[in-house]
Amino acid sequence: MGFRNIIGRRLGLGLVRRRKPFSTATCDGDGNGNAKSINLYSAINQALHIALETDNRAFVFGEDVSFGGVFRCTTGLADRFGKARVFNTPLCEQGIVGFGIGLAAMGNRAIAEIQFADYIYPAFDQIVNEAAKFRYRSGNQFNCGGLTIRAPYGAVGHGGHYHSQSPEAFFCHVPGIKVVIPRSPRQAKGLLLSCIRDPNPVVFFEPKWLYRLAVEEVPEHDYMLPLSEAEVIRQGSDITLVGWGAQLSVMEQACNEAEKDGISCELIDLKTLLPWDKETVEASVRKTGRVLISHEAPVTGGFGAEISASIVERCFLRLEAPVARVCGLDTPFPLVFEPFYMPTKNKILDAIKATVNY
Questions:
Q1: Cα–Cα distances in Å, from 212 out to 72, 150, 206, 209, 238?
Q2: Active-site option among 49, 63, 93, 282
Q3: Which residue out of 63, 113, 163, 296 is catalytically annotated?
Q4: Are residues 210 and 236 in the same domain?
């Protein structure tokens, strides 16, 4: 049966219920196994190897994945697991996700790659109108919870307006899916394995800027990190900073500079944007009385606006200053003017000082 015919029959496939439950693994980000210093794309590659090795229902597919993909995240997978489980698809994002929905509805682990997050828009209808609603419309009689959609997102230094976008806010508006963004290699591996094994469809955005730049000790064993749990990665008392993905390293630099001026910053990595951990953020803001949110996406309609609204609703009487946002500009992502567009360390530092001195 041809690829397009399989996609055309996905609604019929959705009626087939799973014959066996999803496997699980211990949520153990520390573990006692060996750790190795690797970069982010290698951590993603490790997670995909483990996912395919531990579950014969797992499949990896997308444009160019069989030879390793543009960013080499799928290197060696086809050689080890065969082209029946790791295979290229036509250049058709709608078809990739549609096929993934049908595959997951049959009880499989469908790991679909969109080569750049900028090109996820042709698949938007499949994600928000099919994958996100699959369980709800059947009253939980059938679902496509085994679907994980991987996509490199964000600035890369030279991508311009078609290879640098951060579209996470579009998907955070959609009940029925999860949206996850890691900040580092260790987080990427553990969170991706959790996404693949989660009983809900997940959109997993990978910060392409960090594919080779970010390097840290990553456990070599199989481990998972919990979804929808924010992490306080830096304790502070004067202001709370909230971010995700590649922006965390920029924010941490700003925190270090602010500390030289006697400002104590608490830094939180949200990690899961949908559903996000309101309690951890709220507890921090109640302690500091001030909050700053930063992301690469344009400021208008960015997910920072949702966080800001929630904090104002839940912590209004504890706020000592307006909620600050340092984000991308309301323009198409520029090429030569990227340094002016990006929320930089200095922009964040200025906003920290202005908020603390309000």
A1: 10, 17, 12, 8, 33
A2: 93
A3: 163
A4: no
